[in-house]
Amino acid sequence: MMQGLEVKNRLQELLAIAEEKSLKNLCFDTLQTMMRCRYVDDKMQKLVRQNKGGTFHLCANGHEMIGALSALSLKPGKDWGLPYYRDRAFALGLGCTLEEVLGAFLAREVDHHSGGRMMPEHFSHKALRIPCQSSVVGSQFLQAVGVAKAARLADTDEVVYVSAGDGATSQGDFHEALNYACIHKLSVIFVIQDNGWAISVPVEEQTAGGSIVHMARGYVGLTVHDVDGCDFEQVSKALDASVRKGPRRAWPFTYRGKDPTSWSPQ
């Protein structure tokens, strides 16, 4: 018969095995989502250049991992997601299908994403709790803290994810949202995908001091994670520390591998 200490050690071994298996599954699911995102991204790029569909294309290359892993860290149908236009991997990771994402891009009638009537990359899905968004850059920040405040009043443990590029942090909505989230200690994860460019404007020409990380750390109560958005381990640790622990802001660095939009070549 196993003694108390032996039982404890065995349980710890089993937990370690379970955690390792869970991590492997998460790695596989993340990679699968990234590959699906890259596939449809390349397809959209070709369709636009062939003038066969899509009014324009917003490339997500290099942004896939942070979006996919963030989505897989949430609970679909319970938590909320407000991804920006380059966060296609988040939409796919949370449960949107390739058919509906591509259909919306081609302005076809689909069940979600405003029935294909919005501009490309305007993700929305009622069942997955992705609200319909505006085309105005940065407007999703205030939507996110509004949803988080409603969840707080309803006394739920829902988490709200909101993402944007570094250019959107120059908008007043960003600072209003951070301030409000910190004052009310809301469960919002702000993910800023910094590729160093706001479409065609470099970060040093739009951000004082050239670092949004340093600026964000001035908000009392906000924890900032400055990580490489293409590094699975770094992003995973930041998300583990952020989910369900009040206002957080992950600051992932990503690279821009292709033109940011179909109409703004490098």
Notes on the structure:
The protein is of the alpha/beta class and 266 residues long. It has a single domain, classed as Rossmann fold (3-Layer(aba) Sandwich), CATH 3.40.50.970. The protein contains eight helices and seven strands. The strands form two sheets. Strands 1-2-3-7-6 form a five-stranded parallel β-sheet, with helices on both faces. Helix 2 (64-72) runs parallel beside helix 8. The longest helix is centred in the N-terminal third of the chain and has 46 residues, at 4-49. The chain is globular. Mean pLDDT is 82; it is low at 250-266.
Write the layout of secondary structure elements.
Blueprint: H1 4-49, H2 64-72, E1 80-82, H3 88-94, H4 98-105, H5 140-153, E2 160-165, H6 172-184, E3 188-193, E4 197-198, E5 201-202, H7 212-216, E6 223-228, H8 232-242, E7 248-253
Parallel strand pairs: 1-2, 2-3, 3-7, 6-7
Antiparallel strand pairs: 4-5
Helix pairs in contact: 1-2, 1-3, 2-3, 2-8, 5-6
Q: Structural class of the secondary elements?
A: alpha/beta
Number of helices: 8
Q: Give the helix proportion (percent range).
A: 40-55%
Mean pLDDT: 82
Rounded Rg: 19 Å
Query: What strand line-up does the widest sheet have?
Result: 1-2-3-7-6
Weakly predicted, low-confidence segments: 250-266
Q: Count up the domains.
A: 1
CATH topology: Rossmann fold
> Which sequence of SSEs, written as H and E, runs from N to C?
HHEHHHEHEEEHEHE
Strand content: 5-15%
Main sheet properties: 5 strands, parallel
The tally of strands reads: 7
CATH superfamily name? Answer: Thiamin diphosphate (ThDP)-binding fold, Pyr/PP domains
How widely separated are the two ends?
69 Å
Cα shape: globular
The CATH class turns out to be Alpha Beta
* CATH-level-2 architecture: 3-Layer(aba) Sandwich
